[in-house]
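pipeline: protein-struct stage 2 | run 1193 | Arginine biosynthesis bifunctional protein ArgJ, chloroplastic
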Amino acid sequence: MSMVSLRHHHISIKFPELNSRRISRSLDSHRIRLRMVYASSSVKEAANCIPAAPILLPEGPWKQISGGVTAAKGFKAAGIYGGLRAQGEKPDLALVTCDVDAVSAGAFTTNVVAAAPVAYCKKALQASRTARAVLINAGQANAATGDAGYQDVIECANALAKLLQIRSEEVLIESTGVIGHRIKKDTLLNSLPKLVISLSSSTEGADSAAVAITTTDLVRKSVAIESKVGETCVRVGGMAKGSGMIHPNMATMLGVVTTDARVNSDVWREMVQIAVCRSFNQITVDGDTSTNDTVIALASGLSGSPEVSSLNSFEAKQLQSCLDAVMQGLAKSIAWDGEGATCIIEVMVTGANNEAEAAKIARSVASSSLAKTAVYGRDPNWGRIACAAGYAGIPFQPRDLRISLGEIMLMDCGQPLSFDRVAASDYLKQVGEVHGTVEIHISVGNGPGKGRAWGCDLSYDYIKINAEYTT
């Protein structure tokens, strides 16, 4: 019996002599399997490019699980190296897809010089209540690139839509990288088939996507939780990137959040805005607000839970808590990974008139360069904290001000207290040695308002990193 030999990727396979149609089917099937094996291998390699960030979830009735953006039912993800980065071969192209039309929502930078993908996503979300895919590139921000940059986004969305056999308006785009540089469009378009083949519902797929969206990040940021909405178990997952140019409204950060909860479109969009205000809008690294900040949130509804149709319902409050938890976990990972940082700074404010006022005071303190450098210098200089609280623009009585550093009370009733300065300095040193969380507690009165913000210390390395970053 004569044999037909196939050589591909250094593998030799022999088939008995058959009719040409059967041979062709066998060869095509083999090639598909090889591509799938190669894609799976690429995804696993991508997932391990950089380590995982610590996920600092708030306490609640949820369980942390693996899976990130693919934990919820109906979602797949992939991250590959497509040749978009200026140097190195870290993955730079990510894709998250949903098997069904997912209810969509987004939050974006308030920077007037918004990037082309931001403008595109806003328009797409106005045109459609649902989405099926989020494509993200690193390397070029495609910001301040004019009409040509916007056209690049449209062509990328159209090409991906064709491959996925969905409508173009169901494709959303995020970009990160150097401002003023257009996407390497031809390179990206040529990489799309490989990216689509690499899609996986596995944890590796989610982790590879989380790596591909990073820039100066030292860790990948991915989290998922499982909890109840009504009597149904639902999952919420997400990934984000961010390390520098981080400041409220929003930060230099990209994010994708997924859930299999079933929720009304208008309710979902309002819930996402609330969660962003409690998380990504409450982090700061260096006071710079980027051109590209985007968070896209998709709800597949595949958990089988009853539809959340009212923001005031008990089920909505359950889902809101889950969404808040995932976004806060990711936001704190961004603060933890702040460029040159040695610790997180968590500012907790109580006693304000309402949540918004407490949040604004917390942001003011977390954003203070003087407070941040004092923490890096392990100097318990509470005066800088009091100063930053005072210029937040929220009126309160100075005699009501109370400040604690960890468990050490520094000020009460607006008066300085005698405290062990060495112990307070040691607290800051010990936290810095383990890249932990410095806790600053502030009370400004007896009101019901509570708020939190997260930042990091400001070190010499921050200057070095950004002095050497091409802008």
